[in-house]
Amino acid sequence: MPTTHFQATIDMTQPVYETDLPLPGRRQGKVRDIYQLPADGMNPSRILIVATDRVSAFDVVLPTPIPGKGRLLTSISTQWFDFIRSLNIIDDHLLSTNPADLSDLNDEQRSSLDGRMMLGRAAEVIPVEFVVRGYITGSGWVEYGQSQSVCGISLASDLQQCEKLPEPIFTPATKADVGHDENIDFERACGIAGREVMERLRDISLRIYSEGAAYALSRGIILADTKFEFGYALDDSGQRTDEIILIDEVLTPDSSRFWPAEDYAPGRDQDSFDKQYVRNYLLELVKAGTWDKTPPGPELPETIVTNTLARYREAGQRLFG
Q1: At CA 85, angle to CA 80 and CA 89, rounded to 5?
Q2: 74, 128, 223, 272: which could join 216 in a potential S-S bond, CB 3.0 to 4.6 Å?
Q3: How far apart are CA 34 and CA 40, in angstroms?
Q4: Do the domain assignments include residue 303?
Q5: Mean pLDDT value across residues 157-167
Q6: Are residues 44 and 96 both part of a single domain?
Q7: Is 308 domain-assigned?
Q8: Within this chain, do residues 198 and 283 fall inside the same structural domain, yes or no?
């Protein structure tokens, strides 16, 4: 059971859209800035992940930040890591969330990372998104409407939108640094990562989802689907080992769909505690012909920013507050 110390009073006044720290190996993901910290004799190869306040939708990074989003997601993710560690099924990358552990930075730089950093073990990422779905929604619902299947898994012919599936299903996707991820079947995923690895990580992903979904439901939240990432841990010389660890963020509103359990009803879109609220706003722009899901993304109005942040905060408070 995770400890309930969610930070409900996070300072939201100063959004962090991007960082530029004097650390090596900087690269920028869709919503995170990542730095490679090589082994130095005292520490092994490490990676610094900074959760910015950027938001992406339809694989496009939007120009409007959500102030405090990075800190909220980091707080949620780190407590889920505690939960997953209690399952004792796989190790993870997380070493520290304390800026004081970054000795190469000055006080001001460390202060800017407070609440939004994860210092982790460096890993070679397995280029597959490990997606688990407990409900038929999102891209799975679209694919089901075309073939009555998702990622090669045949489903009943009479499912309603957002209906709970008889059992959670594992539906991998390609992992794209830019552009759109693509749903793929299990055989194609095995061709990318190897069958033995995929079978093991499929089972681990399903176990984490099932345990996490049960806990979330006890807190009034339906965990409709989620995605995980795994990688091969690197040794002190930066070489890949055979040890596979859970990396990146876990079970956050950015990597999952969270629905309020008290309002759930199949056959329609659900209210959500995740960035589906942003997606729905953008879909209205697509419908109106003012945006086509390609960069650059549109600015978000203040009401969308405020309401999105409120949903993220409520998710964290329900889960851990």
Answers
A1: 120
A2: 223
A3: 18
A4: no
A5: 97
A6: yes
A7: no
A8: yes
What would the pLDDT profile of 172-200 be if each residue is shown by its tens digit? 999 765 556 789 999 999 999 999 999 99
Note whether residue 225 is domain-resident.
Answer: yes
What's the burial of 164, exposed, middle or buried (CB within 10 Å: 0-12/13-18/19+)? middle
Q: Does residue 272 share a domain with residue 164? A: yes
Kindly state whether residues 171 and 284 are assigned to the same domain.
yes
Residue given tokens 């006080």 in the structure block = 107
Is residue 57 within 8 A of residue 276, CB to CB? The reply is no
Q: Which residues fall within 8 angstroms of residue 293, CB to CB, at 6 or more apart?
A: 58, 60, 282, 286
pLDDT at 228: 98
C-alpha triplet 249, 133, 259: angle, nearest 5°: 75
How far apart, in whole angstroms, are the C-alpha atoms of residue 93 and residue 6? 21
Residue 87 lies in a domain: yes
Mention every residue, 6+ apart, whose C-beta is less than 8 A from residue 129.
172, 173, 174, 175, 181, 227, 228, 229
For residues 95 and 54, membership in a common domain is answered with yes
